[in-house]
């Protein structure tokens, strides 16, 4: 096991390289091997994530369109949530309350002014996450790069994190799962939530599924980026437009910011 | 006053085994419910992503706080040195261990991955109150067993008081910890209140004593052991006091919430328009669990009748159940206020559209699982009193130690015949 | 009497257990690599076969910590890698690897070791909703961008 840390590229023989290609580019198996090897040789992360970056999102609610759910569909697609099927014999109403939802659209109306706002809600990736504080086993944790997620190997399914989350961002998997995606393992009895497309982060991709989908619709309401990089797109935008955190009173310093709420 | 003699529970074998049989059946059904829930997943329960803790937690928390409350009787005897409570100490300790076991079992069997319990036992996150509670619960069990030993064994005598004090401190920490599981949750309006800790302590006193009294009365009448009016008077007065304290905390809790405008929405929902939760609050928590037993226990005539005292205990427990339902489930059903001053028109995840509460309706398996836990607690108690000397032979007035309340006063009913 | 019986049966059970374990070790080592899978064409896995047989869970277990908590995906121990290489196809359909006639499932059934990786992990190579080409293009674009900006995704 000493060679667990043995990650030097040059030592890897052809068999190993093949295996690595397999390991990393698990989703791109059909692509020509040359492209595959090239892509993964550069992409998958081989060093631990550090706190030099902090991933975050900025939602410009002015651009978030009423009736559009592109981000939700993209998230479901990316993370295999659209493969969930209601257990046999379960009524729809109950299933709606029990199925996993990582991102949702919320439509608000101001009680005084009547102004209507649309926005996506998801895990806010707090700097001081209550879900991490309450988790008895440490399954709920914050990665060095600011992503709050669940280690499903440790989660015992007590659901205390769901009690503690002020954003109702987490879901419990109530039924057996089949057809999971390779990049998003998920199974009965554990809690899960938005992880800022962590597999995309580890393969060095530029953004998240929801951001891409929103851009593809032409709305560009969500910006993804590194909150610690002063030159990142998200920081430029944060300097430009007023924004706030939801439930600022809790002082959780969320990684997801909203403009126009 | 005579020497207190403890004796095993010697009801007829037929009677005893039929009691055990019924309890075993209840536990068996609970076990089946557990298997069903774990095999199918939690979709067969009423719990969902909004109301994440349901009926099993109502049972579990009720059992756990009753457990720490039951130990109170022993504490009053040893720590506060009221001799009249001393003969009750052993049964009180046994009940505490039994109910804690039952409660924990329900809690553990409701986990999404109960087979990973070993993870919970080996991987700790010490900023979690849950993780602390694992130590509080196991420690409570160990201390109570040690406490029982000091009460029952001659060699343990000298340690009786120190262990008793430790047990008292520990049980206070335990109930505060249980209350804090809810009280430290800033996310939910109903929970974000430090008063939940002490309120849970008060509730544990009341529910624990009510359970203790019921068990004591049942066990004694089954075998024809006497309980004197003096003992009844003491215990029912104590119960009335505890019930009144619970009502007091309830009042303060809601007054504080009403005063803070932020929580006005929650209060008007719970107190007026919360449907089942409003009903359970007023009828269950306040009336059945509070005012009705108080009325019985302070009634000049009824309060002398053992039957009525038993009825009052049952009411307190039923009220406690309603209380837990409102505290645990009602507080989750009320939508989290993420956007103050705004109304949610549409949401993909039950964010309280137009302020509506989240759906929850318990299903049969979760109720059976909870009852299974109660069964376990009762089975441990029944076996304990049968095989070991937990209960005094008699609690008649001429046997129990003098009651300092009536010392110096000539009280006709407490005078030995 | 009951106690003696209990003890005797405990001893018996443990004896049987020890013997059974011995037989597993002594028995002719079967080969569970499924014909037609990519693994069948290779001389050995990422470690010599003997080592893999004994240690594969240790490897995966360590890997899971560094992958989940540190984001390291570029190492040779990977459950997705196991599945990718050991999967076999019938009529071009990948067969779930935990099935009792497949690589993981068969050996675990033989050794009577509970296999629950695939409660959560995909038991067949399973990409995502996007088609593979789009994903590859995506990935390539992402990497390109990172290369241009002089960052390699390691958080400088």
Automatic annotation (TrEMBL), chain A:
It holds the Pfam family Fer4_11. It comes from Thiorhodococcus minor. Residues 55-86, 146-175 form the 4Fe-4S ferredoxin-type domain. CDD domains: PsrB (cd10551). The keyword 4Fe-4S applies. Keywords: 4Fe-4S, Iron, Iron-sulfur, Metal-binding. This is 4Fe-4S dicluster domain-containing protein. One of its GO terms (molecular function) is metal ion binding. Signal peptide: none annotated. SUPFAM superfamilies: 4Fe-4S ferredoxins (SSF54862). The keyword 4Fe-4S applies.
Automatic annotation (TrEMBL), chain B:
Its main location: membrane. Keywords: Cell membrane, Membrane, Transmembrane, Transmembrane helix. The chain crosses the membrane at residues 16-37, 57-79, 91-109, 129-151, 163-187, 193-218, 238-256, 276-296, 308-330, 367-388. GO terms for cellular component: plasma membrane. It holds the Pfam family NrfD. InterPro entries: Electron_transfer_protein (IPR052049), NrfD-like (IPR005614). It is a multi-pass membrane protein. The keyword Ribonucleoprotein does not apply. It is found in: Cell membrane. Belongs to the NrfD family. This is Polysulfide reductase NrfD.
From TrEMBL, chain C:
It comes from the Bacteria. Residues 1-26 form the signal peptide. InterPro entries: Multihaem_cyt_sf. Keywords: Signal. This is Sulfur reduction protein DsrJ.
